[in-house]
Amino acid sequence: GVELRSLGNTPDEFRQDMLSNLYYRRGTTVESASAQDAYETLALTVRDRLAERRARTAAAQYESNPRWVYYLSAEYLLGPQLEQNLLYSGTSEAAHKALEACGFKPEEIAALDVEPGLGNGGLGRLAACLLDSLATLDIPAVGYGIRYDLGIFRQEFQDGRQIERPDDWAFQGDPWEFPAPDDVQTVGFYGHVDERDGRKVWQPGEVVLGEPSHLLVPGYGTTTVNIVRLWRARAHQASFDLTRFSAGQYAEAVQDAVRAENISKVLYPDDSTAAGRELRLKQQYFLVSCSLRDIVRRFRLRNSDWDAFGSKTAIQLNDTHPVLAIPELMRLLVDEEGLDWDHAWSLVRQTFNYTCHTLLPEALETWPVDMLGRLLPRHLEIIYLINAGLLEEVRSRFPGDIDRVRRMSLIQETPERLVRMANLAVTGTTMTNGVAELHTQLLTSTVLRDFHDLWPSRFANVTNGVSPRRFVRLASPGISALISSGLGHDRWLTDLSLLSGLEALTGDASFREQWREVKRSAKAALGLGDPGALMDVMIKRFHEYKRQQLKLLHVITLYQRIKAGGYDGVPRTVLFGGKAAPAYQAAKNIIHLINAVAAAVNADPAAAGLLRVAFPANYNITLAEHIIPAADLSEQISMAGKEASGTGNMKLTLNGALTIGTLDGANIEIRDRVGADNFFLFGLDAPAALALRSGPYQPRDHYHADDELRAALDAIRSGAFGGVGHDVAASLLDRDEYLTLADYRSYVDAQAGVDAAWRDQDHWTTMSILNTARAGFFSSDRTVTDYLDRIWHATPVRVEG
Ligand code: 26Q
């Protein structure tokens, strides 16, 4: 074959290539280049290096005809691409030199890199971490997703209230993206089902095109470069009505085309509360239909026998969002390929696995039977057929247990007819996994208990993890350099268990001193509050179950102690970051109230030097990478039994923050590893919380019994921080669904323990180092290894360097 000339990576070669990209691809010159020109040119030059590796990867993977891992996810929070791609391609230094030689400041150019905000929170970021680890472990894998025009909204504050602005992230064009118009797919919607020669044929009433583009997903320390393929909805040219246009009806002429392209227009900004809009269902089917066609196309490149499909293909369903893939693959195999039902069903079950990310019953996705039947008539028939098989199995295993049949059915009958997507997911897959030990335990004993009774071996736990490249190396260059110098190597970046070597260094006073200094300079760089103060961080989506309101009650209590005089707490900066779903009024009220409290505290000279509240707007991956290295204290204070895992908890621990937390999600596993002495535990555990919730819980009892709690709530309620306080206080006093008041005293006392620990700076530093040293388990490399062993059974394909 034809050999590719390799691009050189010396500063000189890199600069030459930047120049030619500036001239030939950007069409400008050094003299007239803007910062944006420099950014785009740099991006292209770095991308070229990875594109070479991509070509080698694709060839090697194709050659070995392996079992492929396909990750199907409605969300990816990839984070900014430039610095990652510089690091992974080993061109950081050459790039800095080239930029400086042309008169640009590298930091200013890096600031032009816009993160693709194609996700809401934990689930989307987990998808990105898993792709990073798949590539790093040389696993042949493709991520499939949607290329939303508008990502997660940009958050602004107006008078303390959250305002949502559209995030037109690709407005300047996205230099990282490779369009692949050749692989366009056609997606059907609506219509009816015919029967021809004994075979069902779906005749869609409407078609939309799915146009793919991909981003490169390089592995670290390896040649492998995988891709994430994102679909964008395009109107078929036939949907443009030239007759109407000629008659001057301009809006009407394009209305069908606009409707079609709306499918990938905007990411739903919901985080774990279902919103049953038809457009969302269309998005889900659009993703599934395009991706499965692509997967089948790729299978056929090397295979001709459907029998091999299940052994060559592992498709992971990221929550229920892509679960329509199960009836869609049945339709392709039975209706289009002519396989018999049982054969197709066995291939489908072999192919798919499902990850559940929630415990909140209200977040379990359902779709109205009517809506699904209208949009996807053949899929609804197939769901009914799958259901018949399921219910037959349930009846034969549990004769006479009618209530169990009703609970397990794929169709909820009353009060309205709904398709239960989680039930479909468990039924149509080999394995279902939860994302932390407690989560998997609760899943199999509560929301999916009936399914666990029927098929116990279909359930496994795979505890989440995070990318050490993104969340240690890129986010914290300072701590990373110190870790590498302490360990004498940087192999920890691909084998995070090696962090355990830091334990021995806790006895080294000079290492402790350097560690303290690195944390301090991260705080100084963040520029929010005195770098000498304890940086107390709560960063995550706003949700009542996560209990930002509990942290706020603590802040008010500290403030009231300050106002009372004789305050003996340590200086703190309390930092909040996060967005609320636009329709989630209770969460937005909490944001508003935090901003009001921040304004009062920060303006009060009495609090100066003791307490400061920071709430930078628009928390995203870019901002997370600035905040995480600066954190001393990690707030993981959800009501026990509600947070499936959490992943911010892992990022913060790895960066040497100590956790104050409940026994919820992965906090339990973090505490088990870092040691109870190095973790601030408080609050009810999951069984106690469940018991309290099941009885006649009276939040007002806590209000009456605790003077400080009462004072804090009275201040809120009386409007000391504005009118919004009334609603927040009422919700806590009247209902307190998430047991905030029940856990208040235990939390505030645990925070006094934090202060005491902070006063002994040297001991705090030891605990901080131990947190990092013992958190190696929480690498997403380990998570992917667990998925490979327990679920995917795929093996690496090494690519020549
Ligand atoms: C559903 C229907 C309609 C519109 C939106 C949605 C929707 C969107 C996003 C539902 C859920 C999500 C995201 C959920 C999520 O991020 N869950 C988190 O997943 C993390 C990774 O496993 C866990 O660590 C967190 O505990 C969990 O909350």
TrEMBL record:
A GO cellular component entry from the record: cytoplasm
Enzyme class at the top of the EC tree: transferase
UniProt entry tagged with the keyword NAD: no
GO biological process: glycogen catabolic process
EC annotation from Swiss-Prot or TrEMBL: 2.4.1.1
Catalytic activity of the protein: [(1->4)-alpha-D-glucosyl](n) + phosphate = [(1->4)-alpha-D-glucosyl](n-1) + alpha-D-glucose 1-phosphate
UniProt modified residues of type N6-(pyridoxal phosphate)lysine: 651
GO molecular function: glycogen phosphorylase activity; pyridoxal phosphate binding
Parts forming coiled coils: none
Essential cofactor(s): pyridoxal 5'-phosphate
Keyword Transferase found: yes
Superkingdom classification of source: Bacteria
Gene3D superfamilies: Glycogen Phosphorylase B
Pfam family, one: Phosphorylase
Spans traversing the lipid bilayer: none
Function: Phosphorylase is an important allosteric enzyme in carbohydrate metabolism. Enzymes from different sources differ in their regulatory mechanisms and in their natural substrates. However, all known phosphorylases share catalytic and structural properties.
Family per similarity comment: Belongs to the glycogen phosphorylase family.
Name used for this protein in its record: Alpha-1,4 glucan phosphorylase
Species annotation: Paractinoplanes atraurantiacus
